[in-house]
Amino acid sequence: MTARKGGAPPPDLELLVHGVGGTTPEEMLGDPRTGLVTGDETAAVYRRADDIDAEQRPPEDREGPDRDGPIREAYVWCNLTSGNSSRALWLLLLPFMVANLAHWMRPPADRRERTVRTYGLLVRLVALTLTVLLIAGACEVALDLVAWQCAGSADCAGGKSWLGFLSPENHGWWSQPGRRLALAAVLPGALTGLLWYLSNRTWSAYEASPPLERPVDESAPEAGNRPALCLPGFWYGRRIVARLRAAHTAAGFLTIAAGLILPTTTYDREPGGSGLQDTAGWALLTLLCAGAVTVVAVVCHRGRSECKVDGELDRLTITALPGAALAVLALSVLYAGWSRPGWVSTDQLPGNEAFCAIAIGEGALIVTMAVCALVLHRAAPGRTPLYGLAGPAVAVLACGLGAVLAGGVAQRFADWLDGGGTPGEGPGIAPPVLLTWLATAIPALLLVLVVLLVIFTVRVWRVRNRLLPTIMDGYPGERPDAVRTRRIAATIARAGLTDSAPWIVGPVALLTLLFGALAVTAAWVTDEVPGRAADGAPGAVDAAAQTAQALGSWLMGLAFLMLVTFARRAYRSPSARRTIGILWDVGTFWPRAAHPFAPPCYAERAVPDLTWRMETWTRRHGGRLVISGHSQGSVLAAAAVWQVDHRTRGQVALLTYGSPLERLYGRWFPAYFGPTQLLSLHGEVRCWRNLWRYTDPIGGPIKLPDGSGPEVDCDALKDPLAYGRTTEHPLPAPILGHGDYQADPAFDRERAGLLARLPEQAPPPAEEEAAGQMSSGRSSG
Known about the structure:
Layout: E1 13-17, H1 25-29, E2 34-39, E3 44-48, E4 71-76, H2 79-82, H3 94-104, H4 113-150, H5 154-158, H6 177-184, H7 186-207, H8 238-268, H9 275-301, H10 315-336, H11 351-379, H12 390-417, H13 433-467, H14 482-495, H15 502-526, H16 530-533, H17 539-572, H18 574-587, H19 603-621, E5 625-630, H20 632-643, H21 646-649, E6 652-657, H22 661-668, H23 670-673, H24 675-684, E7 687-691, H25 709-712, H26 745-757, H27 766-771
Parallel strand pairs: 1-4, 1-5, 5-6, 6-7
Antiparallel strand pairs: 2-3, 3-4
Helix pairs in contact: 3-4, 3-12, 4-6, 4-7, 4-8, 4-11, 4-12, 6-10, 7-8, 8-9, 8-10, 9-10, 11-12, 11-15, 12-13, 12-15, 12-17, 13-14, 13-15, 13-17, 17-18, 19-20
């Protein structure tokens, strides 16, 4: 226990949590001299240097402007998302991150646990198809375009010295098609290994922080009636991530093995082939099918365990499954490298059928997801966007992004290898027909986006004009300035576009699904690229097909190149790294429940950090605590408050500002931040206040459904603080929007009000402090 001089009451503490993009402890605390209290270079708690030992001194001995207020601490977690320049490469994992978000977007469950489990299972299967799609795209480039088509063509390989040793013209050991395929399999194999390594390494660095372990709190409401974010194992998904990582790694190895086995067995089954090689091929096909069934079974077997801290590992699964798949791949390499002197590579590998099968499987899974989402939404309707179909819509976008990445690489490689010729329009190098059809749909999708952009631009203009007469109501007595008024009204109108996001996501997802279905059908029926399939059609149709094909091919490749270029720029530019950090702050809040190769979840480190700090500080010092969260920090603060025990929650007040808790999370993730959950948080925390502005495009009011919203929400803050020049603001006041909430006088006023509502505490007795020591609960292995 910390002794206080003169028997003074225990101190008060304000724990600040920053929002998207990050900041420095000096900026958060308003002091250039800060010191580390606890933590490491990844995430830590800081104080002003003068407050490091503030608990040991009476308030009058503290220095600085906050001497009469609480001790201030800053929890800095920005390095979890944007601290290292190499993390910019996580942009290439964007489809996996988006698929993982679909898991958390389901509508709330109303005693429909079976439907909830089915929904989660379907999302995990969609995520598995994305891994297969990415590795299949790598196989398409390495095995089909390079090793099979280009290396097997004297015209293509002749102009590329690095492919000379593979050319049949040289009659070398590597010139046989099977051996070329075996060598090319190194590239997708290395990619699969890299994904496994990144997933395993980032788990150890970001998500391995154990939550507090405690006995069941008898005074708290029953666990079954409490929000999911209260469950002790919510922020510790070690078991499911390890299982999914093993399954997805095995799926990647088996996909490569399929790329080697299928063309080889096709040749061996031709008349005059070797019976021994044919038998070996059938054996490997059997192993391949058994491995695929096992992978699907592992993915389907179980989801997350949230009701307890599940630190166990299914060691047999996570070791044997990827090891067995790697053994099948090794046998496939040996089988493909078996001498076949008469084998000649012609046309393309059977990639079109493979990509069509993946696309059909993804479409069927997403449609079934949509049925489950509609069932859940009808059982518990609410403010969920797209009638509960936000999750399936986001899953469609994830699959579309995966197709753009895989197809963009293939299209650009085919163009480069073929010397700029149009893929599929001649005897040159060409990717699967389906990828060309998908690329052809991109211009139409972009046209829809342009139309939506025009519609929303007109909407902003109309809302701005409607707001113009009302702006001066907030600044009585001020002299009107038309330019200033228009600027304020336009800022408010643009901020309102956030609420219109479903009208972008919904149509784009629906059209992506429809265009994908049309592309699969056209590729399957015609087996020709759009330009060739339109031959003989009316001139306008033929020209439109040719234009869309050429433009779509470049756009698909350009989308991939833009991601790579932006990632490289972020390596050199701190401002670009900050931008990427903002994207990840929003997209990687949720645990990796569906896709183990998604970027790591920073909340599995940040929420235990905040929970530990609040519980240990209040138990040790017995003081009152306000946790103040801005933007994404308010979501972390709310999640941490849900995790602390009932006793600690009675000593904690919650102050949120610029908070997306209801505006974004409550609508897009209603099963976890919906009205019922936020109402529960309001009932369980001692007191809560929320600051917001009309000019803020991210934060908004909480709007509790029982009418108690004004108890949480302040009136909208005035922004700008002054319309014109005043004695307090001799220079024009800026429009703050989402930032600088602490600059508003309401911030200090509301913080002081929260502290006043918390009951005065006495220092805990020594024996109670000793009893408050908590186990880390860190599991070994």
